[in-house]
Specification:
7 helices, globular
Amino acid sequence: MEERIPVISFRDADIRGGENTVLYGLDMDVYPGDFLYIVGKVGTGKTSIIRTVIAENRLEKGEGRVCGFDLKNIREKDIPFLRRRLGVVFQDFQLLMDRSVEENLLFVLKATGWKNGGEISGRISDVLEAVGMGHKSHRMPHQLSGGEQQRVAIARALLNRPEVILADEPTGNLDSETAEGIMDLLARINREKGTAIVMVTHNRTIFDRYPGRVFECKDETCTEI
C-alpha cells in the first residue's frame, strides 16, 4: 500500500502567539482529503497554529512541514511559494472593498505570478462558478451579503488550486442558515476535489453535523479527540 504523505505535519512543536508560547509539544498530521477541525476556547492557540502553518509565526522548537516546506528553516523569499500552495479563509472575509469581486480575484492571481489574460479570466470564472457566485462577478463587496462575501473569499482561496484550505472561524460572522451554506460548500470542495480542509471553530454543532477529525486546544496543548 502506498505511503500517505501528510500535507501538514508537526512533531513536538511549540506554537507561539506573539512573544509567548501558547501550545507545547504539538503532534499533528493532516493528509490529502482530510477534514480536520481545531477547536477550543478563545485564546487557547487555535489561530496561532494557522499562523504557524502559513509561516506568519515562526516555528522555533520542534518540527513542522507544510506542502514540502520546512517551517523551521524556511527562507523569507520562499514564504510566498508556500502560501501559493494554501488557501486561507478568514472570519472577516478580508476582501478589498474598493474593487469588484472579479478585481479582488484578479489582484490575487497577478500577485502570485499569473500573466496570461485568457488563463486568468478562465480561472476567475471557474472558481466563482464553483462557489455559486458566477453571476455576481461585477458586484462590489458592499453590495453582497455576508454569506456571499464569504463565498467570494472561498473562491479566492481556491484560485491557485491549493492542497489545503485553512479556514479560521469562517462562519463566525454569519447567521446559522448562511453558515450552513458555507459548511455545505466547504464539505463539497473537500469531497469533490479532495482538498484538505483545516477549520478553526468554537462551534461544536458544526463538527457534530459535518464530521471530521477533531483536535482540541486546552491547557497549553492540542491533541486529537
